[in-house]
Amino acid sequence: MSETLIETKNLTINFGGLKAVNKVSISIHKGLFTTIIGPNGAGKTTLFNLISGLLQPTEGTVIFKGTDITRLSPMQRVAMGIGRSFQLTNVFPTLTVHENIRLALQAKNRTGYRIFTSYKRFRSLEEAATKLLEDVLLHDRGNFLAGSLNHGEQRKLELAMVLALKPDVLLLDEPTAGMALEEVPTMLELLEKTKKEQDNTILLIEHKMDLVTKLSDTVIVLVNGSVLTRGTAAEVSEDPEVLKAYLGGGILNETTA
Ligand SMILES: Nc1ncnc2c1ncn2[C@@H]1O[C@H](COP(=O)(O)OP(=O)(O)O)[C@@H](O)[C@H]1O
Ligand SMILES: [Mg+2]
């Protein structure tokens, strides 16, 4: 098994009596595409917030590359290499798509984290930004105002902005949410390409199991704040306990709708 990048131990958060995340101990391995699935309200986003530092746990620890980061701020975690799109809600709608990407690249420069080593081969920020736009299939949108993009394009821009950080691990919370149905396969292919070509480590949240079976090396099933099981997509999709939880959470209905 490859190096463990992220490890949580007994991670728990209590929202006034509700244990939204309850004693979650998982490990995320370098180079793998790991997906967390589970019904709405299972605690997936809360778990991401605990890993990225937006929330502090009631109990338990988060370890990144062997270091306890439980008390570090979200920005400190980004600087260490945990890339998550929440800070990219800083998309500036009145700037162009290209300008937004350039700002993301510059923001990374300011963190002092691996300053530009990854982009040395580009003559300028311009070129690096153009390359990123090509990677996420937004090359023909560079001069559009970010605010004018449709929903699917915005999700691609968000992905490009996380990629600009060159993180060691990408945390993506339902990147297909709100997308038109016909746009979903493109986004999934993009994720697959991102993982394969750039050897990225991806931690994806998705509640629709059928979307991720093809992409994931390993799947963690979260139900009522706890890990129900972990395995390959094939293993978990045949697990009667998982199917029961899915039916209970209405996921199958949503998926087939
Ligand atoms: N800030 C909060 N305060 C109180 N309850 C919350 C908060 N955030 C999430 N919850 C509750 O925690 C549970 C898990 O939510 P969430 O992590 O968003 O689930 P998922 O992402 O799996 O749909 C839900 O019952 C939700 O209502
Ligand atoms: Mg969620």
Can you put this structure into words, describing what you see?
Residues about 110-115 and about 250-255 have low confidence and may be disordered. The radius of gyration is 18 Å and the shape is globular. It has helices spanning about 45-50, 75-80, 95-110, 125-135, 150-165, 185-200, 210, 235, 240-250, 250-255, and strands at about 5-15, 20-25, 25-30, 35, 60-65, 65-70, 80-85, 170-175, 200-205, 220-225, 225-230. The termini are far apart. A hairpin with a 2-residue loop joins strand 10 and strand 11 (about 225-230). It has two domains: about 1-80 and about 170-255, P-loop containing nucleotide triphosphate hydrolases (Rossmann fold, 3-Layer(aba) Sandwich), CATH 3.40.50; about 85-165, no CATH class. The protein is α/β, with parallel strands linked by helices. The strands form two sheets. Strands 7-8-9-4-10-11 form a six-stranded mixed sheet, sandwiched between helices. Strands 1, 2, 3, 5 and 6 form a five-stranded antiparallel sheet that branches. The protein binds adenosine-5'-diphosphate and magnesium ion. Adenosine-5'-diphosphate binds near residues 43, 44 and 46.
